[in-house]
Every structure is written in structure tokens, then in C-alpha cells.
């Protein structure tokens, strides 16, 4: 690949030199862009010597870094002629600039003009990293399709120990290499993905729901789209934006979710039921807002339709993947649900463990299949888990449909 390496102004800027070497050793061509602040930490000469190319340091430089560039407007030409942009270290300031779309230097202007894959490897002090502003910027960039290589925990230059140290350059290079291999192996498939919680009304202003954030389902939908599939996402109410290239059908209740799923079933070839659908709905919904009194209030709950079981009955040759959120006996419960709902694959996760399940950006899952295969994946980011689940679906598809259906 032709890679642009953007270097931000942080202590870890020196590690970008090692990353340059590793990328070159993997066979990539590297063009380095440095911000003004980056040059306070490391000289352009280091990168020029490593790459044999002039380092780009200014939006308004008068001589081009490369005489063969297609456009006289250098940031446009660099954007057009490279496959991947990696920013390492991505400082808090750079993340903020990229998230709001500022374009006041070469790197930020290039980011806006760039249509290829963007990888961000943040590095900063722990307080800066955990600050809600930084996390919100990352969330924005991640939802916009940027690949984030999370920082490591460890000793930081400011003398503290915590999260924020630039990921090991070997890990960044590995991630880039795996992205280069992104296959469009689901081209021709139509995914029907469900995500998020459902809300079951008690009265006109209150509802019963659960803690599902929708992140796992949204990440699966996004990953399937990146791997070439047409994707329909039926989602309960969540606070995250719809992924790109995905058709979103918003619903609120379990009954609405059932209806949307059944309507979309005909066209679907692969169904991933990741939503945390309420098991019960309130039978005696009050038409008026319930008043608080001193007396005990009882709700009558009726079971909601079992969408997974119904899809299992009607699935024909479609591939059906269910999810089980459990708090104990994960493997047993996952296998039981796999068979009882007629799924081809069941992804079980323990939702009561630290750093996994609902609301978390991480997950840790057991994948069980009808053929008896059991795979543990995680703890890892929901992006890595989504890739792994799709890899397993691809294997399953191979065994179910045979080679002739595989592109
Ligand atoms: C000694 C020193 C070390 C710094 N290290 C970091 C760092 O590791 N991460 C970070 O986000 N900012 C760090 N900063 C702050 C950035 O340099 C500053 O926010 C700068 O504007 C970032 O510029 P950029 O957007 O070109 O990266 C550091 C500043 C100093 C003076």
C-alpha cells in the first residue's frame, strides 16, 4: 500500500520512526507528514533519511515532495495517491481537530480530502485520554469509520502509570497490514442485523428497557457493509449514529421489532440477531400517566413474541446467528439456545463482567456453532470481535453452502 504517516506533536513522535521502518519492511511505501508541534519533538531529517522522500511539513510549501504527484495542489494529490492514512501519535489536539473537521495545516486538510482508510493511534497522558472531550472525539471519529488502535497501559513520559502510551509500533503495523487484506467476502449477501434494546411502555411517559447500547450490533452491521454486504439494521432506541452504507430501520418495542424483521426477512441471506429484545411487555399499559400513591403498584407482564425462534422456524437456507446475554453458565446456555431456536451460530457473552457486554467498547464472547465448533474471542474491541464473528460466519457459510456460493 501507499501509506501516509501523519506524525503529531507528542512525546511518542520518536516511535513513528520505528513504525516507518516496520511499514517499509512489510512492503509499504511511506510518505511522512509532520505537524508543527511534531517538529518540536523529532526532526524531519530522521523520516527523510528512513523513507528517502521529502517530509511534508507545511500546507503552503512551494516545492512538491514528489515531482510525480498528479495535482499541483499537494494535499489533494497526496490524498488521491495514497491508500491509507495513519496518524501516530494522534495527539488530543489532533483528535479534536479531525473530529470537528478543521483544516488549518497539511495533516488536517489531508484528512478531509482523504477517502481511503484512516487509522488513528492516540497517545497522551491518562487524564487527557480519559477526558470526556477526548473520548467523545474518538467516538465521533470511530463512528465515521476511522480505525482506532487503542493506547497501551504503562509507564508514561509524565511520570505516571496508566492508559495513554502509544500502542507498540508492531501492533499498529499489524493492524495496518490486516486492514490491507480487508476482503469484500460478503459481496452479494444481504445482512439483516438487529441491535439495541427495546422499550415497553408502562404509561405515556414511562417504559421498561435494558442496558443494551447497540454498539455490538452496530459494529457488526458496519463491518458487514465494509466487507461488501448490503446491510439492513433494525435498531431499538440507542444513542449512537447509524454506520455508513447501512439502511437503518428504527423501532421502539419488541412487537415493532418483530414486524420490521419479518418484513425484511425475504431479502435477507444472513440474519444476525444482536438486539436485547424485552422478554415481557406491560399488558395493562395505563392510558394516562400513573400517579404516585402510597400503595404498591403491580404491573401485569405478558411475554413478547420470540423473534429469534420465529426466524429460526422460517429461515430456510438463510444463515441465522443469535446472541445470548447471560450472567452465568455461558457455554451451556449458548448451546441450549443455539438448538432450541434453530440457529446456525450463537454468540454468548457474560454481561456481568468488567469490560465486556452492554455499554462497553470491549467484548469477550463464546461462539458456538451447530457443527459443534466452540471459539472464544476476546477480550477485544467490539470491532475485533465483529471481524471474528464475520470470519466464523464465512466459515459456516462455506460448510453449509459449499464452495460454489463463495465469491
Ligand atoms: C513535552 C510535551 C509533551 C507532550 N506530549 C503530548 C502527548 O503525548 N500527547 C498529546 O496529546 N499532547 C501532548 N502534548 C501537547 C501537544 O504538543 C499540543 O497539544 C500540541 O498542540 C499538539 O499539536 P498537534 O495537533 O500538531 O499534534 C505535549 C506537549 C509538551 C510540551
SSE diagram, text form:
Layout: E1 2-7, H1 15-25, E2 29-34, H2 44-51, H3 74-80, E3 84-90, H4 92-100, H5 106-113, E4 117-122, H6 126-130, H7 132-143, E5 147-148, E6 152-155, E7 161-165, H8 169-180, E8 190-195, E9 200-201, E10 207-208, H9 215-226, E11 230-235, E12 247-250, H10 254-265, E13 270-273, E14 280-282, E15 301-303, H11 307-314, E16 319-326, H12 330-340, E17 345-350, E18 362-369, E19 374-381, H13 382-401
Helix pairs in contact: 1-2, 1-8, 3-5, 4-7, 9-13
The chain binds flavin mononucleotide (FMN).
Flavin mononucleotide binds next to helix 4.
Short summary of the structure?
The protein is an alpha/beta fold and 407 residues long. It contains 13 helices and 19 strands.
Outline the structure in words.
α1 runs parallel beside α2 (44-51), α4 (92-100) packs across α7 and α9 (215-226) crosses α13. This protein folds into 2 domains: 2-180, Flavin prenyltransferase-like (Rossmann fold), CATH 3.40.50.1950; 190-405, CoaB-like (Rossmann fold, 3-Layer(aba) Sandwich), CATH 3.40.50. The protein has helices at residues 15-25, 44-51, 74-80, 92-100, 106-113, 126-130, 132-143, 169-180, 215-226, 254-265, 307-314, 330-340, 382-401; strands spanning 2-7, 29-34, 84-90, 117-122, 147-148, 152-155, 161-165, 190-195, 200-201, 207-208, 230-235, 247-250, 270-273, 280-282, 301-303, 319-326, 345-350, 362-369, 374-381. The protein has 13 helices and 19 strands. The protein is α/β, with parallel strands linked by helices. The radius of gyration is 24 Å and the shape is globular. The strands form 5 sheets. It has an 8-stranded mixed sheet, with helices on both faces. A 5-stranded parallel sheet has the order 2-1-3-4-5, sandwiched between helices. A two-stranded antiparallel sheet has the order 6-7. The structure holds flavin mononucleotide. Flavin mononucleotide (FMN) is lined by residues 8-12, 35, 37-38, 91-94, 123-124, 128.
